[in-house]
User: Fold these one by one.
Assistant:
Number 1:
Amino acid sequence: MKKSIAIFTLLFTLVLTIGLVSGCKNVTSQKESKSSLEQIKESGKIRIGVFSDKAPFGYIDENGEPQGYDVYFGKRIAKDLLGDENAVEFVSVEAASRVEFLETNKVDIILANFTVTDERKEKVDFALPYMKVALGIVAPDASPITDVSQLKGKKLIVNKGTTAETYFTKNYPNIELLKYDENTAAFNALLDKRGDAIAHDNTLLFAWVTKNKGYTTSIDSLGSVDTIAPAVKKGNKELVEWLNEEIKTLGKENFFHSDYDATLLPVYGDAVDPESVVVEGGEISK
């Protein structure tokens, strides 16, 4: 009798376990069968990775709210996709974590000044561009760096995971690089004189020198002129196609020039030509 009960209990446990596993698989299968856009719409919120310390592109204002050129764009994405510009969760990312946040599904889109490169295309999918950018170098007025050759024997500050790090590692391996995760830490290293100069996106450097007297963008364009575009998880074709149509549509209303006027013009003033930064409708002007 006891043996029969034990056998019955074992069989019942096996059946229950199989049922639970099967149920979990069905739930997972149903979830995976839904498109990325369906999942975003069902959640009622889109998660967008932005910088929190890269004014005027992505930063936290005095009220603790995300602001900047990328944030302005992100709110419009939420409005057009979900009907509400507040239906967005802005997730703070660092340059080196942008790919990982997409790969691990922590965000749906990266808008953190993500420069398009062939190496990055192997890991993520980019939509059409909405900005142009080149590398620049800022140094103290007292000891400007007007040519890369002047960096010999000096320390150059860069951010990990940026095109600046890649460019100098590949083309100038003998230049000593001081690498930092955060933008704030990198610029503080320049202010504290731990490094002799900093290499970064020229669009950011133009803004930084307006608030930090005694420093000049002594090289305002280095290497090639690149583009910045939204990035999504590799293989997410549906979301890329939606973003491409969105960028084309926004171009018809000069949205990105409006974005520039609202977020960048107050910082740049007349020092920067908007056409050197803005890409409208995903098309690079010649």
Number 2:
Amino acid sequence: METKLEQIAAKARCELKLRFTSLAHHITRDRVQRNLLKIPNHSAAGVDGQTAKAAKESFEGWIEPMLQSVHRQGYRAPAVRRVYIPKPGKTEQRPIGVPTIADRALQRSTAEVLSAIYEQDFLPCSFGGRPKLSAHHALATLHEVIAGGKISWVLEADLKNFFGSLSHEWVLRFVEHRVGDPRLISLVRRWLKAGVLEDGVVQSSEEGTPQGGSISVLLSNVYLHYVLDLWFERIVKGRLRGEAKLVRYIDDFVICFQYREDALRVQEALHQRLGKFGLSLEPSKTKLVEFGRFAQRHAGKRGRNRPETIYFLGLTLYCTRNRKGNFKVGMRTEKSRLKRSLLSLRELMRRIRHYKISDQVAEINRVLRGHYAYYGVPGNLRSLSKVYQVVERYWRRMLCSRSRDGGRLSWGTFNQIKERNPLLRPKLRLPHRELQALAVL
């Protein structure tokens, strides 16, 4: 099965303008079943209320009708159930779409087939939602661009309501550049028009694509590939005076420049370019920052103690120097993300305080492991240590609260408990040599 996708990928790589007219037969029952089995049993159910476990057990009953409807272009994509999750450090919430389990498996299968084509087209500046690439690759590349180049200015950009603003017309036109199979085009159109269930009412979708589905991530990458990546690499860079580099992770991106005048020109052109495709920048979150090896020297001339910082993928980036005195980009957990992580851990410890101690530690360490894995970048040990210290103190407090009379647990006794059930200590997952290796992949 994978050999067939590799053949598609090879053909797409060799013939950059080829439109693939027969793809739907690659969405097989085996592919859908394999993607279905990857969905955890605790995953949230969609509008039909069917759980992942139930969908797996009833697979034989719904797979053939689903595939037949895809081939006759009659698949009716179920509405997406909308839920809200908190935005880091804010009172507002982010809308997330929850497709049905069966539809989720079909989306993943379709995304696999389309990715075989588009992975040959996507540029090296794009990192999000792509196989074998992660936020750490984007951060490593940004570090190398700034620390190893002539970069002096960084445009930190934020797209306003990106997923809710995608033009369905433009999405389909972009997909049709490479996909000529009407069954796949129909499938994508049905997903775009599926609608959203909220408060018991299905709202029609005239624009945008709900965050949460696998196909949404792929379509978002395709959209910005044509709107931003190709435009910047093929048109903009050749007209600039100095060096310039784009680093994008789905809808989060920064553009680095050697000269301020180049940055100002691109910032103005970017507004016009995005507006043509129904997108816009969030003014309050878009700023041009003097950043790089010469920023420290210039900061003093401008009456500042230190250069400004930039924010990217949950981390605050700042100008600093290594032990040899050479410039480097420092990284630390962004304040709102740190606050959100600590609040989440406290809520977890309150919820599980009456569990067995070994079970409590297992749950806490599971969350700590994920936090360290993402934020454990070079230079961020202080932030990781703060998380560990807060967890340590609050866990002791929760253990004290288990007693009816609020008895006090001495630190000596608490340390004995920790020796038997140790909390996971901070660990940098990406030493400098590995960070540099990621950047050249």
